[in-house]
Description:
heterodimer, A: alpha/beta, 5-stranded parallel β-sheet, 17 strands, B: alpha/beta, Aconitase, domain 4, 2 domains, 7-stranded mixed β-sheet, 36% helix
Amino acid sequence: MSKTLYEKLWESHVVCTTGSGSCLLYIDRHYLHEVSTPQSFESLRTDKLSVRRPETNIAVADHSVPTRRDGRPIADPQAAAQIALLEQNCLDFSIPYIPLDSDEQGIVHVIGPEQGLSLPGMTIVCGDSHTSTHGAFGALAFGIGASECGTVMATQCLLQKQARSMRVHFTGRLQDGITAKDLALALIAKIGTAGAVGHAIEFTGEPIRNLSMEGRMTLCNMAIEAGSRTGLVAPDETTLEYIKGRKGAPKGEDWDKACAYWATLQSDSKASYDKEVELCVTSILPQVTYGTRPDQSLPDNGWIPASLTDDARNALTYMGIEPETEFDQIGIDYAFIGSCTNGRIEDLRAAAAQIKGRHVAHGVTALVVPGSGLVKKQAEAEGLDRLFLDAGFEWRAPGCSLCVAMNDDRLPAGSRCASTSNRNFEGRQGVGSRTHLMSPLMAAEAAINGRIVRTMGTGS
Amino acid sequence: MRPLTIVKSLAVSLPEANIDTDIIYPARFLTDTRKVGLGEYAFLDRHESNPDFPIRTGMEQKILIANENFGSGSSREQAPWALADLGLRVLIAPSFGDIFHGNCFRNGLLPICLPVPTVHELHRSAVLGREFEINLVDRHIRIDGTRLAIRFDVPPDGRESLLNGWNETTRILENHTDDIITFEHKQRSEQPWLWH
Lengths: 460, 196
């Protein structure tokens, strides 16, 4: 029988069925961070349980870490205690931990792939909704809660119900300057933030094949913003090329065996999906959100619509924007380039090329926060840090930073930010702050202009 | 986990759609490593903009009637922990965020999905101050002063877990350790690269 990639990944990890429509699913990889695991370890202690296969876990602090470090102690005592607790828990349960001062530290969804720990065919979980990122490798990756983090550590399994399958098929050809972030936002605008709830998305089509691994990760990362816990791209040459030689990648004979297996991880040509969406990418313009949900994207004409739902009107009130205004009149106070969505080397290269020889607008604070220590080092080796610093950007240490505003990077109420992160929810970057989601190219351009301008198309 | 069978209570109505987990539990309180006592942070930013916001410490209702896509966004389990800490036991909405929905069952919270018109009716009953009875045993909602008996569906695993107050982790180990060992042997021989 023909099967989708999702079905193949699912079936290859079913330990047993439970008789009530759920399956016990085997988990190959668990990423841990400081926010969603303290209570999981506490449950292990209460139930007197140990970690079944500590070596399949890897822990790193990212959410609450300051991005101005320079070896100084963490100023926020609660954040310091939370990070120290992660380190202690890992020590107590023999889980590998990447320390804060290591070059390998970074955002959990950046470091996993970077270390070759996210491989095709795997099941990958983390107490973070953006775990869908790792689906870019053809792995079944999804976000879980803290209780499930405890369950997976103790049992190496999770009780799960199979999702419905959904194919998002892209056609056409991306114009220059249009990125994976624009694809993601255009898709979400089309199907809505609940458009894929209960489904596992597989992205297919020529434009996907032409994306780099970084681009595929950006796209899969945003699957959750369309409501899907899982985003998938079938592995191909691009995938293998990215993985080969990385620290955690299979070596020698194992590599050949793995490649042979990974080649089978494609949806069969006659496989059917529960839901199908097709999107032609040729006419996609740079995307930018105006509201408080990722699906509230600016129309192509660059004007805020006149007729709005109550929902969108409330969002505009929060955002301090009038209906029927032309968008490029709106000034920004901050620009943020980083996060598990857009904090990879390719993102920094694109932003750096955009700002070369120019300067951040007066009154704008612009931050670049590399996704990991290795991304930071690579960028510095290429001289990107100098480009950013000379242009008036701040060059920070890796962490989630302004994507979740749990550390000391927080925006004041009423301020407006051009952001490469994934959520423009109310208060996401600080109480009362206003977030506009966009690509690194667009955020860089906004920082230079002091207002949001489309890098191409209408409104530029 | 505290079992859930029948809940009788007034209900609170929150008709806004797309209440994400950032609204339920603002990120700046995520450095708190507790699991209980988080109710004080629930909807905190809403309290600041609306002093009469009804979901707060000391509330008596155990049932929340919400709207589409409730609990979307971040996987933070602090959201259901905080709601449970306020004494809430049942959440009713046309749809929920997937991860939030799963998290509820592990924390003594019953999420019920019902069609939009039915949920609309329940919002009205909540506002009118009617008493609700949510019966997980026979899967019916009954409302005082009306003849309404609304049947609801709920995932069988989650239902069983709530009815019995089960601990998922220890139950898996008790019932399936042999299955897990068998799976591991097979995977180890077929995909050895996952085992070094």
